[in-house]
Amino acid sequence: MEKLGEIIALGGLLHDIGKVAQRISGGKHSSIGAEFLRDLANKTKIKEYEILALFSEFHHKGDMVNEKGEIKEELKEKIKKVAEEFKISERELINALWLVYESDNISSSEREEASKLNIRNPLKSIFTSIDIGKGSVESKYYPLMPLEFKREFPSPQKNIEEKKIKEDYIDLKNNIYDDLKKLKKISIDRILVILEHYLTFVPAMTSKENDISLYDHLRMTSAIALALYHYHKNDFNMDPKDFINKLNNDEMKFLLIEADFSGIQDFIYTINIRGALKYLRARSTYLDLLSWDIVMEIIERLNLTRANVIYNGGGNFIILAQNTEEAKSKLKEIRKEVCKWLYDKFEGSLYLAMEWIEITPKELKDFKNGELWKELKAKVDERKNKRFVDIINEISLIDRDGFEKKKECDVCKKQVKEGELEYIEDKDIHVCKMCKYLWNLGDRLPKVQGFLRMKGKIDDTDIKYPSIKCPFSTFYAIESLESITNKFINKFRGIVFLKNSFDIFAVPENFEILPYIVADYAKIADETKHIISFDKLAEYSIGAKKIGVLRADVDNLGLIFAKGLKNTSPSRLATLSRFLDYFFKGYLNQIIQGKFQNAIEDVPMLRVEEELKPNNEKANIVVVYAGGDDLFIVGSWNEVFTLTFKIRELFKKYVGENPNITLSAGIGFFDEKYPLARMAEVTKERLEKAKDEGKNRVMLLERFEIDFPEFAETHKVSYGWDHYKDLWKKYAESIYKINKEKKEIELIELKETNGKGKKLSKSLIWKIIQAQELYARNPKSIRWAYILAYYLGRHGAEKIFKDLLTIDISKARNKPQEIYFVDGVLKVLLFAIRR
Known about the structure:
about 850 residues; 4 domains; six-stranded mixed beta sheet; five-stranded mixed beta sheet; about 15% strand; Rev_trsase/Diguanyl_cyclase; antiviral defense; exonuclease activity; coiled coil
């Protein structure tokens, strides 16, 4: 990147750095920020901080020009001092400052009013600003703290103690200063990490309703400024007045780029090897790295930075770039190269649809009230309908190797030359090179501390890490960051994707760095030291030896982004997408490991997990995929069951209990020999059913669907989350106990008139379920009630299930009786007591 472009990107990134110190003792944040940066220049001897101080001191119009619109003499004098040293003309620097000022305005789309300011106001949760017509929610706020996923759960609160806020600002300011001071050279990638770590929960503005993170405002200002720099690259030697006029015209200066993978489900889940959870995980990780490889290639060729990546997750990414013919030409080249590479490697099963739209600064400022998302999504969807159109003339329908003997890869089923298959002894399978790479990666994933991305021709024998090839680079799985020695750095260059950490000093400065936040929890088998197998997960289950599978995602996500925010801006959308991603990638590991229990109220669970499981025993869970707004988890069935409700409970707290942002889920319990692809399909169908029936719901187990049209709307097979929680407490928790000696769950004993007791029988539970099915087959009949009364009376269980015997006449026409819902609870309990 050219020097002026780099200075502009950094200027945008640090222009509001003074806001942290301002909120400790007051004052003008632009002057405080300039002083902060000049002090760093003196302490570190890094001269760039001197020029960057100007971007803090002069990023408001009133500080730059007088009443006549002329550049102030004070600014001219300060520019003269630094421009020559950096071999930048005074005009270029004045115009650069103005460009960052305009980028600042576009980024936030609103200005602070002095009457509404309170420098101690905390950051309002962006989630409590969402409204899609599902009910209002009161504003809630975050305490000031660094972003660390192992710390306290960031549940927004109604009130934050003002005294504590000042103390926290002092800590944040000192931490930022200390980390910047340790840098040996200015590095955009490392400054981005420092700011994300410390400024995520700092408000960009100090009005009561500010919901934009200062980090997101800074990175989006930097992204916009750099895109504008490339668009106006040839205009910087213009007279400032002429440059300002040109800068302020409403031309299509930006590209909003989106890409979305097709074929992900089949790629991840359609495998036919037994006990291959580690391979499943490797495929999921590979898709993530594949997406990052393409993202990094785009920003490298277009001379952008990671700040320009608005979002990347779930097989989808969005990037802000300059609208120049050169940029569009490079994007077309990249799209074609990716298309060709994917077709060659996966024979058309995996495809990336990438499109872009041209937009003006005004349209970017408010995203056309959400309409930009619709336009961009429509173009991407249209591209998906023209798969591989870019290389149609290069695709040969004739197999030129047709006369050579071929054999099928035992995993992906790709036909390859027989001699190219490799043998995996412990599974007795023959696999293609790609599957062999993934197999090796799967073995190492639990120990991996990060990935090293490197480009160009490299002799892999020099690097003793498992590798995986992508279209533009190779990723190496790093098991020990200490292994990157000085000798190693002097030989290679690349980017370190640092897993779940913001510790920039764990990686030598010769390498670029990127925080790679990923939910990668997996139970490790003691005997093999590898990811646990399906059969072991089933073996460790309570009662029935089954695998549990969970799929869940956020409801109405497209509507939330398009219409959920009243005042849409680049910074606000960046904050929303990033905070959503953090829940699924950053906090999920901690939730699985039992953290944040103080934030979880009663959830449906089999208490045996709390009473019999040692505190140090790790959860029998494997995260196959989690990111963006959805997840796919497998594990021992009872642990998956409980985890589902914990995730929902914490998600509800995470979004400030806003009814406009909800989660739906599909759960299934399967034999460990059941085909993985079918597990994925069944739980996907259940998730879709929960959404079709109103969202904010969960569907678990098969239930009889009513065949009466007039009852279909009210008699749903999925459950509202809170409704199921109430049913569990009412019917499940009152009829089982824990046998600590046998480490089993048993049904309770029923007290009889003679003082003796007999155990509640499984056969009675089945009779209740049969009565439910009888009702479901014909809700108009009450025959089920007579049968149920007979069996409950015979077993002496009328008191426990008394509400099931009550027929509510007001519900007789079309609303379900209590009996209709009880099977979803009792069937789960039967799983728990099965021997």
